[in-house]
Design goal:
The protein is of the alpha+beta class. It has two domains: about 80 residues, no CATH class; about 45 residues, no CATH class. It contains three helices and three strands. It has a three-stranded antiparallel sheet with strand order 1-2-3. β1 and β2 form a beta hairpin.
Amino acid sequence: MPNKNKPKKVADLQYRRTDDFVKSYANNAYYESSAWDLTIVFGQLDQLVGSPAIIRQNIAITIPWAQAKLMAYFLRLHAEANDIQNGKVPIRSDLLPPVPPPISEEDAKNPAAKKLYDLAVKLREEFIASLKE
């Protein structure tokens, strides 16, 4: 009987860029989620003198949740590898994720809402602690 838990070997993949391949820069990301997928809208801060600062959004990429979870793993792996090789990337205190607002009494009665709130608090604390290590 084959072992269902054994990962399948993935064939070597070749990467080729399409003729309409686009490369861009972003220093801002906005997240839109649905039951089916996650859309990340990328943009860049524009601080034109005499005008209010705005984010100019220039591209959106939509990915399924399985890809989002894999991406979270690989983003963390690459970011931490960079820290090991080049030193910690400093994050200004005014750019840290904000403290999640207190959960309402009504939401505190909902186990899923409470779990999500606790997760947001935990992940923020872990992120801030990782900057000090």
